[in-house]
Amino acid sequence: MSRHSSSRPLWLIAALSAAVFVLPAGPAAARGPENIADVAEQVIDAVVNISTSQKVDARITGMPDLPPGSPMEEFFDEFFKKHRGQGGGGDNGGDDADKTPHRISSLGSGFIIDPTGLVVTNNHVIADADEINVILNDGTKLPAQLVGKDSKADLALLRVHTDHPLKAVAFGDSDKLRLGEWVIAIGNPFSLGGTVTAGIVSARNRDIQSGPYDNYIQTDAAINRGNSGGPLFNLNGEVIGINTAIISPSGGSIGIGFAVPSDTAMPVLDQLRQFGEARRGWLGVRIQQVTDDIAESLSIKPARGALVAGVDDKGPAKPGGIEAGDVVVKFDGHDIKEMRDLPRIVADTPIGKQVDVVVIRKGKEETHQVKIGRLEDTEKVASNDTKKDAVPDQKSTVQKTLGLELSSLTDDVRKKFKIRDSIKGVAVTGVDPSANSSQPDKRLTPGDVIVEVQYEAVANPAALQARVDALKAQGKKIAVLLVSNGVGETRFVALNLQ
User: Fold this and answer.
1) Would you place residue 255 in the very low, low, confident or very high pLDDT band (cuts 50, 70, 90)?
2) Which residue in 241, 251, 368, 477 has a CA-CA distance of 20 to 30 Å to 233?
3) pTM of the model
4) Catalytic residues, which ones?
């Protein structure tokens, strides 16, 4: 996955062969909609190039960005070796490499959303820049000021000042997009400003593992380096996405590009305009996916929702009655179909709003009222304070249950696996696959602590064995374990009892 602002020329070598085929003429629809040119003409003056520069103290290599294995790689390597020390800026790995401060430049795209000079782009286009310039379609270069930026949604808002109103574009409703719908991308790929490409919506709600709020539009419209921050239009000339990332082994388009949906971007941009930062809602829970095994053990059909693995002691969820083991299936009227739906919906909820949270607890639905807090960006560092074990002379009791070697939490066990004294339960000291023909859950590792088995606390290996035996007698095939790591972060694991 690559972000695609362009910081230097991309050198491409390609060997092409072609064959000519005569195909029968098809209907106009097969060649794409005829109003693409009209839409491009209508909106192109609102699309801008973003130029940034940054002063850095680093060795200058001067090597162009070449695809791995390129036949030109050896040529340029030899060229820069010859010119090191002669102004070529090469880094020979020694003390004579050029370490003088210099400026590096980057190019990306953006678009104007207000005639007074508000410009949208990606955060990664302007991140760490000392100087930002907006270049209009007619070539006018305007210095820009940063209004605000948000790394989680990868958005930034800039302001430029002019003596006359600028051409601006409006946002459309990305929730109304259909698969196969035509879209138009305009931007600055490879520093070739004002480039128009067209394609279709290939998919929606894509999670590309770039952040906690991934919800991308996937398109096959050609998006390349330098398109970052540029708009994705529908055929009404409305912005329904902000081009952000591509999948490509070479840096060029292979027809898989991603855009931040307008419905995700608009609330963030409004906050950047008002406050200079994004202010997101906070529930104060840690969640995990409801797998088929976990859903079966909790009698949830079909598998859905977000499983609460832990509740922050200082978060809004705790006074609202949310507990570890609850499965959130609806939040503020929105269905939670899968785990990743919940963070996005909570983040978009106004701070201080009282919301209904519907959970499934032990097979029954319950509704809780929670007042949403504000998510802070600061990391919470776990305390290292520990207390002495109350029973220092207790001997370790180890037995094999379901392919797990278990032990009471003695001083030696806590010290060996760095388990805090505040954590209670049964320690996993080993995992033996051969002891369980149906293969134990490999997510359990030595140093984990089993706190509960199917919502009942277990204090020692004997209690855990008794609980497992009771569940088997009830005909249960799966048991849900509440498992903690050494610092107290909990999660649920489904274990096969057969």
Assistant:
1) confident
2) 251
3) 0.63
4) 124, 154, 228
